[in-house]
Amino acid sequence: MRIGHLPLGLLLIVSLCLPPLGSAAEEEVNVYSARKENLIKPLLDRFTEETGIQVNLVTGKADALLKRLQSEGKNSPADLLITTDAGRLHRAKASGVTQATRLPGDDERMAGMFRDPEGHWYGLSLRARPILYVRDKVAPAELSTYEALADPQWKKRICIRSSDNIYNQSLVASMIAADGSEKVEAWAKGFVGNFARPPRGGDRDQIKAAAAGVCDIAIANTYYFAAMIDSKDQAQRAAAAKLRVFWPDQAGRGTHVNISGAAVTHSARNRDNAIRLIMFLLNDESQQWYADINGEYPVRPDIPVNPTLEGWGNFRMDTLNLDRLGELNPDAVRLMDRAGWK
Ligand code: FE
Q: Considering the domain 130-255+330-338 in this protein, what is its CATH number?
């Protein structure tokens, strides 16, 4: 029906229902964030200061936020999802709650491996998942690759969290990409056989357990270790001081890395503002602040890393496109299950 044929009264109602051009509604962006509020709010405030765009922030647990997006569907008020792990971002994309976007003029700033090839998500910060060893019990010369942690010499010496955790799923997915499922399944059986205890707790708990003598090796993300090293809590600092970072596979494909990232939602009504916010989070100042405050590496290689991370030295990272972690996630989950990784 052409608008010219509508009776005047109906036209009036229609026009009253439409938001006026340039309304306040255009100057906002709704963010669902799995990062804790105090870790991201100051940056969002800076964004509002600079652009005048109001940021409405909802924080929650990563998996709960994804479920919420899925159940809200097209009616979701969210414009941008900020969450951790490429495996999770892939899951969001696969469940249809994200959309492809292009960042204007950003192609040079971030390596291709840190973004979805179709533009559904973009990395904001980088973390690695190295081997942490108790310095009194393990010599770095004894360590080499993730694969070698299945060797009998590590019997009852390894602490790692459960297989339902996305970080471990992504690590195993990266190994499948390198070695193939068959080899990794055999590895996983040996690796699980070397656990010092049934998996429990988060990454920090593995570090604490190693410091307490439960195991000699802990697998954990770098920012947890950095947070413990720089903790205000003396017990955490003391525990962290007993361990050192070993970068696995430096003669091969490199250490497994992952990202936190952002995805514009399928339902976004403030799409352009969401893209502006991603661009803002990738600018020099944000990259530095965001990485420092979270104890992470900037996703842009031209931004300096914080002194704690710098102290661990440079490392070669596995340059697998992180999208593959999501694609291989179901294989990784099944394989870990078959290997008896609780
Ligand atoms: Fe984490």
A: 3.40.190.10
